[in-house]
Amino acid sequence: MNAMEITPLPFVLNDANFLKRLRSAAADSSRVIVMAHAKKRMRERKINQNQILTCLQKGVICEPAHLTTHGDWKATITHRVAGDVIRVAAAIQMKDNGDYCIVITVMK
Prior knowledge:
- The protein has helices at 15-26, 36-45, 49-58; strands at 32-34, 60-67, 73-81, 84-95, 98-107.
- It is α+β, with helices and mostly antiparallel strands.
- The chain has a 5-stranded mixed β-sheet with strand order 1-5-4-3-2.
- It has a single domain (32-107), classed as YaeB-like fold (2-Layer Sandwich), CATH 3.30.2310.
């Protein structure tokens, strides 16, 4: 392999950097995408959109950030919101125009 064929290393996030990027993306609700599975769990568990946004913006990581098979970084965030302790499994999808937060599922 010559110098012109260098393969870039995959982007690596630790928990602190993941949380910083997640909060930045979640500050703009148009950058938060709730998957169909998460919407179903929201109805079942009586969790609303505001609770999810608050958890993403103010919560702490309870399951560490890791790289998924899809190439996105994922972690689970927890926070007490409106009297309920909720957990949100979310991934950061990195696009050319910035990061997006993908809500995979929600739990109580």
